[in-house]
Amino acid sequence: MENFTYHNPTRIHFGRGQIAKINRELPANARVLLLAGGGSIKANGVYEQVKKNLGARVTHEFWGVEANPDFDTLMRAVELARKETCDWVLAVGGGSVLDGAKLVAAAVHHEGDAWQILVTHGAAIKGPVLPIGAVLTLPATGSEANGNSVISRRATKEKLAFYHPQVFPKFSVLDPETTFSLPERQVANGIGDAFCHVIEQYLTFPADGQIQDRFAESVMRVLIDVAPRTMANPRDYDARANLVWAATWALNGSLSAGVPGDWATHTIGHELTALHGIDHARTLAIVLPSLMQVQREGKRAKLLQYAERVWDIKSGGEDARIDAAIEKTRAFYESIGIKTRLQDYQVDAGKTAAEVARRLEARGETAIGEREDITPAKVEEILKLAA
């Protein structure tokens, strides 16, 4: 296991009625920018609870943060925060709203072009960052307890990520009941996204991180178990609570401490979203099985461990077990309604493979994956296999 420093500063308030905790968390004199999406929080009662607990605090609302939040939209939120001298950002929504809040919080006092925060993957953040609170309404990204953010720029067909320790939320409220009214597609996307987050930190090469491996395997097995239950009965509190908590643990930094990470599936998937507008989780489902196949030799030991410990595949030769594990992975995504082939999204695999490879090469992302051996040529191979 490698050396590591682990610290997660986000305080989690989990369970029914916990939205009331924002009154305790926010200073009485806070000037709050409330960031939200398309308005579903008004229909499900979350907005009313949030407003009640904001009380008399000066609050300015910004609505319209998209799925795959758009840079230009968020810059309008930054302008509002600057104009009204907001000193807190409260994100109320899913991972896209939380990701957007992180950019807004970092950009309010940033000098120069805020897009450089994304281009430098967070290194351009030098000045103060506004504190962030969150009320999560969609389990998926783990953004409620990490310092990561992924932002799209539709005008230039780009999608980039950044990390910075100052954008960890100070607190996050996770009330499973706020997710009961989510459309089935969004629940499926959340499950698929969380599952791939774990895979990216687990399916690499052995590092004798036994705690990390067992934690990762348990999160994957919970997701596999809870997926059909929570999709069949969205109001099953226990099933949904376990999904919410699994999605948080999938990307709160605990699984990646001291072990190698891959993240090539995400890198490639971001390009599919940027080019074709495919839901983030669905791009992961397209890329992952093919990447596992192309990278099977470098990942052989962990693929065999994955087959046995996650899917209970214990008989047959090594290659047969790996094949079965890859098929189980594809079948899991398909079972929750997420298609795993480019043709399912009317995308030409050959053209897209060449374009994604070209874009990654232009950005200098020519050696990705845990061994830095996934070249643009391999990316083409992966996407052609995903046809």
What is the chain-wise order of helices and strands?
EHEHHEHEHHEEEEHHHHHHHHH
Classified by CATH, the class of the largest domain is Mainly Alpha
Number of helices: 15
- Distance separating the two termini: 37 Å
- Oligomer type: single chain
* Percent helix: 40-55%
Portion of residues in beta strands equals 5-15%
Estimate the mean pLDDT confidence: 97
Number of domains: 2
Side by side, the strands of the main sheet go 1-8-5-4-2-3
Low-confidence stretches: none
List keywords for this structure.
alpha/beta; six-stranded parallel sheet; two-stranded antiparallel ribbon; single chain; globular; Dehydroquinate synthase-like, alpha domain; 387 residues; Rossmann fold; 11% strand; 8 strands; 15 helices
Provide the fold topology.
Layout: E1 11-14, H1 22-25, E2 31-36, H2 40-43, H3 46-54, E3 58-62, H4 71-83, E4 88-93, H5 95-107, H6 115-119, E5 132-136, E6 148-153, E7 158-163, E8 171-174, H7 184-202, H8 210-232, H9 237-250, H10 264-276, H11 280-294, H12 300-311, H13 318-335, H14 349-362, H15 376-385
Parallel strand pairs: 1-8, 2-3, 2-4, 4-5, 5-8
Antiparallel strand pairs: 6-7
Helix pairs in contact: 4-5, 7-8, 7-9, 7-11, 8-9, 8-12, 10-11, 11-13, 11-15, 12-13, 14-15
